[in-house]
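User: Structure please.
Assistant: Input sequence and predicted structure:
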Amino acid sequence: MSFVADVKAKVRANRKTIVLPESGDRRVIDAAAYVMAEGIADIILIGNRDEVTAKFPDVDLGEATFISPSECERFDEMADTYYEMRKQKGMTEELAKATMLQPTPFGIMLVKLGMADGLVAGAVNTTADTLRPALQILRTKPGTKLVSAFFLMVIPGSANGEENLLLMSDCALNLDPSAEELSDIAIASARTWQTLTGKEARVALLSYSSHGSAKGDSPKKVAEATRLAKEKAPDLMIDGELQTDAALVPAVAKMKTPDSVVAGRANCLIFPDLNSGNIGYKLVQRLARADAYGPMLQGIGKPVNDLSRGCETSDIIGVIALTCLQAMEEA
């Protein structure tokens, strides 16, 4: 059974409710219909039922719950809640109401109030459009200093047909993390991997250098981040700085870093900056024909996940299933 098929099977047994605020997008609607038909999750679509079904008359959305912000019975409560949370930041009652009329903030407030278990957005809107209200309304998890983004990459296997599963982070959010921030991203990614897969994380902090083989500010930062991560989480398998081939290829690891417990078999790849992370995951996605699920967010108070605007329906389905799994683990 493939990784995503296994996730779908797990979440069917404990069905969660996921909000999809971008109900005007065909990919989102097709994903919603599939998820409901397969019993993966219950779906709340933000919008007017008549308008959405008229736009997509060929899609069965009979099981979906539709909520239009302006027609919601709890709208005033939601606007008041948002106002109270943000009034110290200059929020006014009028602006709070205007914000709650927007599909994504409204959907996140549904999660805040326990009317849904998670939210998936980003097929139409930017990461900032999803992240900003998520941080404002749901805040971060206790003990979390930094929210970061990751992709789960499902890479087609070799002749035996087995998948290769990798977590890549941060590929969408933090522009140029410091050594301290990079160490937090590595630890959070390891915990996420263990939560989603049930397997031990082997974390490689990537660079153009392996254990001091090249000089420069970036390798120095990655080496320091590795030291900090090991100090903060001695229970985790973390190593760096490592070149990508040393992190993934056993024969190369044997030559370059023979004493490493991670090299040659890493399953979590931590990039030194957003440039390398975003370029790296897209190269793997397009050239290896990998499925890229994300960018998913780690560190938010409740499950809220982003999508790439270039995503396909299958990507949305996978992220919905993974969001359900996150909600199960956090319940």
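The chain has a mean pLDDT of 93.
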